[in-house]
Amino acid sequence: MEKLSTSIKIYIGLVIILAVLAAINVLLPQGSLLPTLEGQELPAPKPVLALVNAGMMLILYGGLGFLGLKLSQKLGFANIWDPMVSNRQRFLIPALVGIGLGVFLVLADAILSSFHALGPIPHPPFPTSLVASAVAGIGEELIFRLFFIPFWVWLISHVILKKKWQNQVFWIVATLSALAFALGHIPAVMVLFGWKTIGEIPPALMSEIILLNGIVSIFAAYYFRKFGFLAPVGIHFWTDVVWHVVWGVI
After folding, report:
1. pLDDT of res. 118
2. With a cut of 70, which residues of the chain have pLDDT below it?
3. How far apart, in whole angstroms, are the C-alpha atoms of residue 192 and residue 121?
4. For the chain, how far is it from start to end, CA to CA, in angstroms?
5. Could you tell me which of 100, 92, 102 has the C-alpha nearest to residue 230?
6. Please, which residues have CB within 8 angstroms of residue 208's CB and are 6 or more apart in sequence?
7. What values do phi and psi take at 168, rounded to 5?
8. How far apart, in whole angstroms, are the C-alpha atoms of residue 18 and residue 134?
9. Cα separations in angstroms, 15 against 5, 21, 51
10. How far is 242 from 233, CA to CA, in rounded Å?
11. Distance between CA 183 and CA 122 in Å, rounded?
12. Is 127 helix (H, G, I), strand (E, B) or coil?
């Protein structure tokens, strides 16, 4: 039986951590983050929802991420535990980039929120914010970076274009990934403010959501290809730590 590589072992560990934290996140208090849901009956008891959430992470996220991991290896992206990537590149640089992006998000939100009447974007209470940061750092990067980018780059560049223009296709797909990632936050924003249609979202807030999430996504995509999947996970996590955890309690 072929031994699992270090990269595969780390990937499996990340998916298990994601599933456990996603379940825990359901059980944690959400504070005033979702005021429109207060008093509404949940579709199932919280422990059941937690198990369903964990199962979805293991099967759906884990499966799509594994496919993306294999395709990223075919495309020549850095592996999760690539011997050519140092721990400084794998952990320290993403942490510094993430902290910098987190500070940028705080400053940008302070400026951009003045263009609409809703005020600064609210954050989950602590310690929910810390758990949510880890869940987003792993889960959202699994879908929007590890799966989305390699799949479409492989399909377009390797299959359709016969292994041509991979770099150009990568940046087009990375931009689309950033847009998809940003728009993926729209449903949560609508629930947060009780809006029923996208048209109710102020253009200034919509622009802020797309701009801030898009910038984080581009950095994550760049370092994903260069340093492997742990890099975007680190960037996303540390961005959210500054943005949701630190700024959320100040």
Report:
1. 81
2. 1-2, 31-42
3. 10
4. 53
5. 92
6. 108, 109, 112, 113, 121
7. -65, -40
8. 8
9. 16, 10, 14
10. 14
11. 18
12. coil
The first and second tokens of residue 101, run together, are 């992006």
Q: Which long-range contacts (CB under 8 A, 24 or more apart) does 175-180 make?
A: 175/218, 176/148, 176/152, 177/144, 177/145, 177/148, 177/149, 177/217, 177/221, 178/213, 178/214, 178/215, 178/217, 178/218, 178/221, 179/210, 179/214, 180/144, 180/148
Integer Cα distance of 10 and 83 in angstroms? 14
What is the residue type of 120?
Answer: P
**Is residue 220 exposed (0-12), middle (13-18) or buried (19+ Cβ within 10 Å)?**
buried
pTM of the model: 0.93
How far is it, in rounded angstroms, from Cα 146 to Cα 63? 11
Residue count of the chain: 250
Both structure tokens of 126: 């602590």
User: Token pair for residue 81?
Assistant: 């535990």
Q: Give the pLDDT confidence score for residue 37 in this predicted structure.
A: 47
Identity of residue 153: V
Q: Residue 2 phi/psi, 5° resolution?
A: -70, 135
pLDDT in tens, 100-158: 999 999 999 989 888 877 877 788 899 999 999 999 999 999 999 999 999 999 999 99
Distance CA 30, CA 20 (A): 17
